[in-house]
């Protein structure tokens, strides 16, 4: 079996373990962790789209979806525990799903690996390895 087919099977198996987040109401509870989202940005993107989460203490945190573009997007990001209380009006979510910490970190490595293929440098490789020891919120900021 080819490596490509093996990776496709693995991706499908991982996707079947994702925990879907119900997006029916505006105030959706989320636990802290990595999320994969599929969404569309409608119209011209004037500002960086974002998701707003309020934690249990009432602190409002914003996750910018840096790197998104007009049209369909699929993105990995980290959210704190709390309630999603809003998002940019230009975002139309198709799906948000929680993924395991291992899968989140593996996806970060794949993202970094893609950059290494195009722009190989030992400095980038070292930074990529060091990033794996950061907390998840900071790690996500580095990747995005």
Intertermini distance: 34 Å
Strand content: 25-35%
**Ranges with pLDDT <50 over ≥5 residues?**
none
Give me the Rg, rounded. 16 Å
* Number of separate helices: 4
* SSE sequence, one letter per element: HEEEEEEEEHHH
The overall pLDDT, averaged over residues, is: 78
Specify the structural class.
alpha+beta
Shape: globular
Widest β-sheet, arrangement of strands:
1-8-3-6
Give helix % range.
Answer: 25-40%
Q: Largest beta sheet, briefly?
A: 4 strands, antiparallel
Q: How many beta-strand segments?
A: 8
Write up what this structure looks like.
This protein is an alpha+beta fold and 144 residues long. The protein is built from 4 helices and 8 strands. The longest helix has 18 residues, at 101-118. α2 packs antiparallel against α3 (122-131) and α2 runs parallel beside α4. It has a 4-stranded antiparallel β-sheet. A 4-stranded antiparallel β-sheet has the order 2-7-4-5, with no helix packed on it. It is globular. It has helices at 3-16, 101-118, 122-131, 136-143; strands spanning 19-20, 28-30, 33-41, 50-54, 60-64, 71-79, 82-87, 91-99.
Give the helix/strand layout.
Blueprint: H1 3-16, E1 19-20, E2 28-30, E3 33-41, E4 50-54, E5 60-64, E6 71-79, E7 82-87, E8 91-99, H2 101-118, H3 122-131, H4 136-143
Antiparallel strand pairs: 1-8, 2-7, 3-6, 3-8, 4-5, 4-7
